[in-house]
Amino acid sequence: MNAAAASLAIAWPSTDALWIMATGAVIAAACAVLGAFLVLRQMSMMGDAISHSVLPGLAAAFLVTQSYSIGPLLLGAVIAGLLTALLTQTLHRFARVPADASMGVVFTSLFALGVVLITQVKGVHFDKQCVFEGALELAPLYTVQWGSLQLPRALAVGLIVLGVNTVALVLLWKEFKLSAFDPALATTMGFPAGVMHYLLMTLVAVTAVASFEAVGSILVVAMLITPAATAHLLVDRLGPMVLLSAAIGAASSVLGYALAVHFDTNVAGMMAVAAGGLYGVAVLFSPRYGLLSTMLHNARLALRVIRDDLLGMLYRLEELGAERRLASRDARTAIGGGLLAWWGLASLQRNELVSRAGETLELTPAGRDAARQLVRAHRLWENYLVQFLGLPLDHVHEPAHRVEHYLDSGLQQSLRQKLDDANVDPHGREIPE
Question: Of 20, 112, 227, 315, which alpha carbon lies 20 to 30 A from 101's?
Fold first, then answer.
């Protein structure tokens, strides 16, 4: 971090620090609301491609106009972004190039052309470090008048872009939503999916250019995709996903600035790192899709299956009138042994579904009722497989053993009404009431 940037970052939370965080939050939110649609359309890398390929558009606009004003530069960037999307689609559709390969060829070629233009062609004077890495630390030094306020220029531009993106999404919500999930259906219903695609690419290109001064072309893709990918792990509806994406992007800016001050490093880069860290937390702890949540769900399901198998085994022994009762060690071994078997048996005893008489196990009245429902589901499903699917008798036990855990009383009653004979199973055993 250079001396000027470091001087801005020392005082926490100074006015300059608040401006830097606000600028990062607005830029991140403007990127994230569009990123939600890129993630849903499985076009995450298109944001990366456009954020890189607008560089030759900026350089070409300067060569033509000899001006650094925002209008020509923005027009050149938008044209370059649309050209990226068009060339990618053309190579994929007509040249039969895989989508990822066509995207890689187009954006790397255009980005390389942009690097050549800004480094070798006489007259083009872009700050390469600013274009690549951004200069968010310096945002409070360059201000514009916004009503009665003196705002950082990058913040003002970010607010405008966030407003444009928000208005576009609100006005065309149905069209964006339908074309994101089913482009063919959108076109059939009169919403041109192709037009919506290129409108989205235009908004992405405009947002990428607006983000250059703050986070640079290399890091803007993190703000486009990472907050949206994080929100995708946390919610299942598009509206909350868009709002949560913006909130996560804003949170990344605050957290990233604090970390950048602590470690004395590039602010924009640390904001992207913070966004990645929040994504990692979501990957681990998302209530529905997180790794730990999935592991916990699988453990609960495995425990439930173990418990059901123990109940069913003890019930069938009672049905056979076996004089010898099953010992707890034998019962655990019969269902595979290990920690889960021990845990499942302990759970049944704790819930008073199984009692222990010395070393042997017996069903309690409550346990017998639960086991009876389980065996009933098993035998009804065996009947269904034979009567409606024509499976031979030696092929029905294993499928029924898997399904019995999920057939509640309502489904059992429905099966009973469909079956010709719901009193005995295909093997001649009585189906419990």
Answer: 227
Q: If you search the block for the tokens 């033509």, which residue do you land on?
A: 64
Task: Provide the token pair at 151.
Answer: 């705002």
Q: Is the pLDDT of residue 7 over 70?
A: no
CATH 2.30.30.280 fits 13-285, yes or no: no
Mean confidence (pLDDT) of the chain? 84
* Phi-psi sector, 390: left (phi>0), alpha (psi -120 to 50), beta: left
In angstroms and rounded to an integer, the radius of gyration of the C-alpha atoms of the chain is 31
Which spans in 41-69 are helix H?
Answer: 44-65
Q: Which CATH class is domain 293-362?
A: mainly alpha
- C-alpha distances in Å from residue 181, one per residue of 10, 103, 193, 207, 221: 46, 21, 10, 23, 22
The answer to whether 85 touches 200, Cβ cutoff 8 Å, is: no
Q: What is the DSSP string of 369-394?
A: HHHHHHHHHHHHHHHHHHHHH---GG
User: What is the C-alpha to C-alpha distance for residues 89 and 330, in angstroms, rounded to an integer?
Assistant: 63
Cα–Cα distance for residue pair 395/374, rounded to 1 Å: 19
Which has more pLDDT, 235 or 432?
235
CA-CA distance, 312 to 331, in Å (whole number)? Answer: 11
Amino acid letter, residue 389: L
Least confident of 79-88, 211-220, 222-231: 211-220
Those residues whose C-beta lies under 8 Å from the C-beta of residue 15, and which sit 6 or more positions away, are 140
Q: Work out the end-to-end distance of the chain between its first and last CA atoms, rounded to an integer number of angstroms.
A: 76
Q: What is the pLDDT of residues 136-161, one digit of tens each?
A: 888 888 888 887 888 888 888 889 99
Among the listed residues 368, 264, 381, 383, the one whose alpha carbon sits nearest the alpha carbon of residue 3: 264
3-state secondary structure of 5: helix
